[in-house]
Amino acid sequence: MNRLPVSGTEQAWAALGGDPALLARIGTAGPAGLLPARLPVLELARSTVAVCSLAAAELTARRLGAAVPRVWIDDGAVATAFVSERHLRIDGRAPTTFAPLSRFWRTRDGWVRTHANYPHHRARLLGALGLSATTSDDRAVPAVSASFAGRRAAEIEQTVYAAGGLAVAARTPGEWAADPRRLALSGVPLVERERIDAAPARRTAALDGAPLRPASGLRVLDLTRVIAGPVGTRTLALLGADVLRIDAPQLPESPDAHGDTGFGKRSAALDLASRTGRAAFEELLAGADVVVTGYRPGALDRFGLTAESLAARRPGLVIGRLSAWGPGPWAGRRGFDSLVQVATGIAATETAPGAQDGAPGALPAQALDHGTGYLLAAAVLRALTEQHEEGGSRLVTLSLARTAAWLTDEIPTPPGRVADGSYDPQKWLTETDGPLGRLRHALSPVSFEGSPADWLRPPGALGADAAAWLTA
Hints:
This protein is of the alpha/beta class. It is 35% helix and 14% strand. It is built from 17 helices and 15 strands. The strands form 4 sheets. The chain has a 7-stranded mixed β-sheet with strand order 7-13-12-11-8-9-10, with helices on both faces. A 3-stranded antiparallel β-sheet has the order 3-15-14. Helix 1 (8-15) packs across helix 2 (41-64), helix 2 (41-64) packs parallel to helix 16 (367-390) and helix 16 crosses helix 17. The longest helix has 24 residues, at 41-64.
């Protein structure tokens, strides 16, 4: 049996195909005991930011023909960024991160967690219970609680899913280890990396010449939502890429989530089911260097957005692909960080001592989302470095469930008691004025010699920009 590398950073860099000698370029500092948990959450967070920073430094070196800059990771910056949605203020207002129906519920035989932040998911959850979508939260919460209390968690999971809603039964680590959904991840790398063209294809010409920022000149089509994918593309925008987020006009998105993850990007609405929307997308694709998708596997296939089809139409493309559950029986299901924590036994592991009725707990951050987001950015950056040297189209694939397996089964757990995690985050927060108002937000934790300190632009309104690249 092969020994896993000692640290999470070594494991992540190996998964990205990076030169192990470059790990010596990484230094770490900052307050101790942050993101406290039974599982090694800080190690996951630090590792994903470290390899993302190193991948950016490596690409910078390739473009400049210079040595790889040193990387400096501050645990305070990392911990602050991993809860960036909690630090966000829009004109002084704190956003709501979870709706009243997104929570744990006691069942006859355990616990179930639902996700109903989006109106259509809320309506489907209520519909599964015979309740109208117009039912107020004050009435819906006790009605759902009463209904679930007399039913088995597995039955609730199946019934709500069949209605198009989101509910996941809480599993123990042992139950998840024997589950077909976990077994389907066995042998799947933390980051799947493929070259998907059969013959040599173009190099990314945008990488030629000295950059103002590591990803300057690159054009990224961002088809991601919620947290993980947008964190990855927010990082590419920090590094100088022209990131254009594309959303379907009929699909709701949280303006507050976009206020947190929309820094550095532009946002356009395109209906890919329409002839004009498809034509506009094809024009964008013809000028793109990177496409990142964050939908369920197969959800975008009818629009011709499989990796193979994209690479055939735009040879030399780098494609990043993200999903909740990865391969296996739940590949086509919707999922969110909180639900993956519940299914994989993380919530059971993090149950607080003395918790009422033994209610499952949660990680101190949506670490699967944020960690996978930084890994996604790192994978795209490493693919660009390889593509710059060798040409060809590249595909990188990640999932929240695979990141969860890395956290629970592979990253070493540091010895010692769980600290309280208290610190002052102000050093890693700033304020920016923009179209959405005055934003207090977390600075990026990605850091290396010469790295940018902040984004070039604040987030604008969703869908307010033209579906066009900034420069010809």
